[in-house]
UniProtKB/TrEMBL annotation:
PROSITE patterns to which the protein is assigned, alphabetical: VOC (PS51819)
Pfam families: Glyoxalase
The protein, known as: Glyoxalase
Organism: Paenibacillus sp. BIHB 4019
InterPro entries cross-referenced by the UniProt entry: Glyas_Bleomycin-R_OHBP_Dase, Glyas_Fos-R_dOase_dom, VOC_core
Classification lineage: Bacteria, Bacillati, Bacillota, Bacilli, Bacillales
VOC domain boundaries: 11-134
Amino acid sequence: MNKNAKIGGGGLHHIALRAFDFEATVKFYTEGLGFTPRHSWGEGDGRVIMLDSGDGNYLEVFAGGKAPVSDEGSYFHLAYRSENIELAVQSAVAAGAVVTVETKEVVLGDNPPTPVKIAFVKGLNGEIIEFFQSTGDNQL
């Protein structure tokens, strides 16, 4: 993958999520999706934990969340790379997620055409999670 010369590196580092149920959210991402706790701090509604998704990209979970402003939760969606979309969706559902878009194959753009598989689930806090798998020669 190329690095972003404008910002000196680039790529996803972390997405921040304010959890309605901190313990359940951490359990969902660690046990359900296999994320690894890396750093944590604070107490009560001031707790924060950084969870490594597996390749150095993090989900930062904050305690003390309130009801979401919209049906999509605190952000539109976040996408995680996957080498096996079906297994990712299965793991998420087993941990309490709800499928919102079944696994499907799509082609992104035409210069060059980039075939991918995608699926979406809704997590425990109303967050929309996309699983994204590059399937062709043009890896994204």
